[in-house]
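Hi all, posting the design record for the shared folder.

TITLE: backbone redesign
STEP: 1 of 1
STRUCTURE INPUT:
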């Protein structure tokens, strides 16, 4: 849907390029591991989409604590509401329907698609999932970082 990026090809082709770091901006593995390691030298808060979907209030409270801020319940509830996937998907400030006109082709796909966890299962075959899992385990073996892919 992003017209300035190269055509990703099929899911199998893109996954192969992704695993080999042959995508725009290079290796996702190196990028993620580098930022995960940065926590040893810098004060960084890591948040995960699955955790935000599971319990948005808890995750926003983590941000508040990290920023050393205290907000009353009414403001907290407004933040929870306005940062929900459903509200952000309809917000031109976040869904790229107002900005980047001509760059984002929403007839191909909306920028914000479903907001669900585990949708990868609808696209990965069993064989592709096995191949990706093996690659992931190999390349992420030297990190303590753990991702959830389901709720």
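Okay, here is what came back for every position:
SEQUENCE:
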């Amino acid at each position: 849907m992003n017209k300035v990026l190269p055509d990703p090809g099929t899911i199998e082709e893109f996954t192969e390029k992704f695993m080999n770091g042959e995508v725009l901006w290079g290796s996702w593995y190196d990028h993620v591991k580098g930022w995960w390691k940065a926590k040893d030298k810098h004060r960084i808060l890591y948040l995960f989409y699955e955790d935000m979907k599971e319990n948005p209030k808890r995750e926003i409270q983590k941000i508040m604590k990290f920023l050393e801020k205290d907000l009353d319940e009414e403001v907290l509830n407004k933040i929870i509401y306005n940062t929900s996937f459903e509200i952000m998907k309809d917000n031109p400030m976040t869904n790229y329907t107002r900005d980047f006109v001509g760059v984002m082709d929403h007839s191909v796909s909306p920028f914000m698609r479903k907001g669900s966890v585990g949708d990868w299962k609808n696209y990965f075959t069993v064989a592709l999932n096995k191949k990706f899992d093996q690659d992931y385990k190999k390349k992420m073996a030297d990190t303590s970082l753990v991702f959830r892919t389901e709720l």
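COMMENT: Residues 126-139 form the longest helix (14 residues).
Let me know if anyone wants the other runs.
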